[in-house]
Here is the input.
Amino acid sequence: MVMASSDPPILIIGAGVLGLSTAWHLTERGARVLVIDRERIADGASCGNAGLICFGHPPLTRPGVSIQGLKWMFDKRSPLYIKPRLDGELLRWMWSFHRHCNKRHFDRCMDVLCALGGLSAKCFDEMFDATSIDCDWRREGWDDVCMFESTLDHAEAEAAHLEPFGYRAKRIDGETLRAESQAWKPGIAGAIRYEDSATMNPGAFTAGLARELVARGVELRSGCTVADFLRDGDGVTGVRLDTGEEIAAPHTVLTAGVWSDALARSLNLRIPMQPARGYHRDLGGLAHVPRLGCVLNETFIAVTPFHDTLRLAGTLEIAGFNAPWLKDRLSHLTDACGRYLEGVDTAEVTSEWAGYRPCTPDGLPAIGGVSSHPGLFVATGHAMMGMTLGPGSGKLLAEEILGERPSYASPMLSPLRF
Ligand SMILES: Cc1cc2nc3c(=O)[nH]c(=O)nc-3n(C[C@H](O)[C@H](O)[C@H](O)COP(=O)(O)OP(=O)(O)OC[C@H]3O[C@@H](n4cnc5c(N)ncnc54)[C@H](O)[C@@H]3O)c2cc1C
Here is the structure.
């Protein structure tokens, strides 16, 4: 598709990693793009997350997770916490989530997520080749660190699931970990190293990507809250802001993270998602930090070293929007890490943050055009894998918008599947 310079630009709602990645791929193909966000650019979930780029990461819908989640329901310090409440929306989401937590669905998800992960890996390489984004990008893998031999054995068995997809993982013992960094306390059993993955400072990545887009002619506007879609019959022809301003566009892209569902509802389109809040606590002034980003297996907490900061991130709290922060969960980040790492309990806290993962009940994102509403395209629902899968998802969407043959397609990603 060739756009004349007088045509209005393609409009993207939401400047998180999904919106910015889609803008990148559209711009690379010569399209004109306007990205709008109600907040500052690149300030949502995409800026404060753990920054682990885990290609081939399994979905949240794993066999047994829903039952475990129910057991954890009343424990505010558990890795997955669902605030008990009578909410029809939440109950429907939980029932659907439960129905998807089985081996057959898990295997089907892995096919999709591994393909999308492979595509994203190539996109990251291309982006870093073409730009000078400075975000502590390290393509050296991440470690699934286990305190106990039994969990290490289990983690090794899980890693074997990825081998058929061409992702490499190797077992390393506790001594090797400690030889790499004195940050690790004695007594840790070891780790599974996912060698093909990467880590980065996500806020620096999205800010850098936004700068690169501006340099390539993309217009970024903050402080623009979309209230509604402009319609021509069933077709979507742009948006109306809460100020009443109308922005017409040949294609409208909905990448508003977990808020996408609320916007889609005005079109009678449902992308059911729960906002799964997670926290980070950044620490400064540590004498030693792990060599690579990692997840502390028994706690589900991610630990990522940036150049002068150690980020602890995690917990998955389904409590609706705008519930007060659970301070217990923030201090749990430090307490749990203190069992593995030297110095974290006394380190200076330099920042605390919370953000919402957009979680669909089937564990997969929604990516693609909405055939019931020509002109509308969606990329959302990436849950805990948005940074990892963002660039690949943006490529698929850009290809579809511009009528190119898609690099990958699966009906399991359809925004109309719910
Ligand atoms: C604690 C934590 C740790 C995580 N760790 C990782 C990790 O290690 N690796 C990984 O791959 N993923 C991780 N994630 C997940 C990842 O952060 C998300 O999947 C991803 O950021 C979602 O990106 P997004 O672009 O869909 O949404 P967002 O980044 O939330 O962007 C959506 C944007 O839409 C805007 N918006 C919303 N409504 C409107 C409106 N009406 N009008 C205009 N703009 C609007 C918002 O202001 C926001 O800027 C983590 C998440 C959390 C919370």
